[in-house]
Amino acid sequence: MVFVTYAAVVGALLALAGLILGSLRLAGRDVSAPLRTYRGWLVMIPIVLGTLLLGREATIIGVTLLAVFGFREFARATGLYEDWWMTGIVYLAIVALGAVSLVTDPRLGQPGWYGMFMALPAFVIASILLEPVLRNRSRGALQKVALAILGFIYFGWMFMHLGLLANTPNALGYLLFLVFAVELGDIAAFTFGRVFGKRKLRERISPNKTIAGSAGALGVSLVLPWLLWFSFPHFGPGLLVLTGLIVGIGGQLGDLVISYIKRDIGIKDMGTTIRGHGGILDRVDSMIFVAPIFFHTVRWFDGAG
Amino acid sequence: MNTWNYHPSPDIGTPIARRLRSFPREPGMFAYAVRSFAALLLRAWMRIYHRLHIDGRENLPAGGSYVLVCNHTSHLDTLCLLCSVPLRRIHHCFPAAAADYFFTNLPRSAVSATLINALPFDRAGGGAQSLALCSALLEERGNILILFPEGTRTTSGEIGRFRSGIGRLTAGRDIDIVPCHLEGGLRAWPKGRALPRPRRLRLRIGQARNFRHLDGSPESVRAVCADLQRCVGELGGHNE
Predict the structure, then answer these.
(1) Residues 6 or more apart from A26 whose CB is under 8 A from it?
(2) CA B165 from chain center: how many Å?
(3) How far is it, in rounded angstroms, from Cα A291 to Cα B71?
(4) Residue B239 confidence (pLDDT)
(5) How large is the C-alpha radius of gyration of chain B?
(6) How many structural domains does chain B have?
(7) Is B35 among the domain residues?
(8) pTM for the whole structure
(9) Which chain A residues are Cβ-neighbours of B7 within 8 angstroms?
(10) pLDDT-derived band of residue B240, with 50, 70 and 90 as boundaries?
């Protein structure tokens, strides 16, 4: 039921956007860039919805694949990819995160080995730190180690809390809401920025983001949990407000973090995987902050982890 | 504190289709893993389905860069030659493949670049640009180049005339060229057929040739082509 509602809402929004783009084009405006982005959505949305509908295992595998290829983009952008040992450790670690999200907890018998998921970073960071020792290299070791740890923790571990969310009893509602709200927040920030934006939010990080856009996105994110209450009917009003804040603030923080990473490296997009959107990381960036904070909030207040 | 220097991959920001077509390609862990696995499967398939037999493996030079030239009757030629080189050198083995055929769309480019490790050869304009690429490859150590000097798949069963490219590439330079001949390709997978038939294949690898004593003049280019054409023909003629 929840799924059908979301599919209908997304379908309606897509149709509306298509109509607007079509009429703008008929009016003689150049819409080639937004049209490319729109086509990207048309490809992505069925894949994401289909994966979520297939259930827990498909969702966790999908999240793992996104993390693997997201980290690959990060490694290629920073130059870490030249060190196959270091990237190999991180790839293995990301696959291990996916595996412990999939298996049953050996003591509690619940789906997903939560304890091991939380413990893995200790072992992975130790392995990354030991790599230069094992290979007897010191040149550039600190930079490689730092990039590998960041890549694993941020693009792997934090992002993959989405896979843990798939293990909760209300998984479909949470995941559909998060994906929908985070992406709508992105679009809201862009639209409000375009229409009302004057003052820059962080001009030395991302010249396109404005304070108006940011406020608009936060406003939309605060309203959405109330409109989509049916996704998590057991939430009280306090938790609805908190969810709105997490999505509204977390989403934009993720966006800004990836922006300064790109700016420091000196590239425009992390990749070219999704036509009209850039790389995988350019699309999932907003989710990276939201996933772990939302998961732990739900786990704390809801008890369902 | 100084800021770090990053070395983004040079092909970052290029769309995947163009990245596959570009050469030299940036080595990648995924591509290497997939290619190694594909090479193993290919060897098994060739052994079992085509009962591929390889004569003269010992004629392949051990170190250094060299060129393999072969008659060209089907796509199996490339695959057999890929099976003949040592597995650990598979990522440094580049079959020259016509860019106007093997790199025209995304799936085909992906197979050509990832599984076959093909060098996109631009046949237009005598192939001068692509020959320069080949030349640069051979200057590095440990690269293997696979060339089909006939330029296209032949259908008659005879060895076609060798084009001048191989001569221009190797006349007057210290490059080993290993002539090879594949027998059975025409019966197994003639031009125009979608899938190969289970016919026996036999690859003969001849003694390496070297033309460093020649100069780069048109006569020596012709001499190189004629010599190699004769070698490949002789290898094929053993059983007839």
Answers:
(1) none
(2) 14
(3) 58
(4) 43
(5) 18
(6) 1
(7) yes
(8) 0.86
(9) 78-79, 82
(10) very low
Show the beta-strand stretches assigned E in B56-193.
66-70, 93-98, 119-121, 144-147, 176-183
- Determine contact, residues B164/B225, Cβ cutoff 8 Å: yes
Predicted confidence at residue B14, as pLDDT, reads 83
Structure tokens at B11: 């092909």
User: CA of A105, closest CA in chain B: separation in Å?
Assistant: 31
ipTM of the complex: 0.79
Gap between the Cα atoms of A179 and A284, Å rounded: 9
The percent of residues above 70 in pLDDT, for chain A, comes to 99
The tokens of B58 are what? 């010992």
Task: Tell me which residue of A304, A279, A280 sits closest to A294, measured CA to CA.
Answer: A304
Q: What is the C-alpha separation between A153 and A94, in angstroms, rounded? A: 9
What does the block give as tokens for A8? 């209908």
Closest of A4, A94, A7, A112 to residue A57, by C-alpha: A112
Give the nearest partner residue to B9 out of A76, A268, A273, using CB atoms.
A76
**Which residue bears the tokens 């060299």?**
B66
Amino acid letter, A252: Q
Q: Which of helix, strand or coil describes residue A279? A: coil
CA–CA distance, B129 with B133 (Å, rounded to integer):
7
* In a domain? residue B70: yes
Q: How far apart are CA A280 and CA A269, in angstroms?
A: 10
Residues of A with Cβ-Cβ distance to B28 under 8 angstroms: 81
The residue type of A107 is R
Interatomic CA distance for residues A27 and A201, integer angstroms:
33
A88/B29 touch (CB, cutoff 8 Å), yes or no: yes
- Mean pLDDT on B85-109: 91
Which of B82, B99, B76 is closest to B190 using CA atoms? B76
Q: Which residue is listed with tokens 């923790």?
A: A153
User: Residue B185: which CATH number?
Assistant: 3.40.1130.10
| Residue whose tokens read 């290829």 | A69
Q: 3-state class of A28 per DSSP?
A: coil
d(CA B134, CA A28) in angstroms, rounded, equals: 49
Inter-helix orientation angle A280-302/A171-196, to 10°? 130
Domain range for residue B99? 28-237
CB contacts, 8 Å: A84 with chain B: 29
Residues B191-220 pLDDT 10s = 888 899 999 999 999 999 999 998 888 899
Residue B133 within a domain: yes
Chain B environment of A79 (Cβ under 8 Å)? 6-9
What tokens does A90 get?
A: 């991180």
Give domain status of residue B3, yes or no: no
The DSSP letter of residue B174 is -
- Which residues neighbour B128 within 8 Å (Cβ) at sequence distance 6 or greater? none
Best residue in B2, B5, B6, B25 for a mutation probing chain A (most A CBs within 10 Å): B6
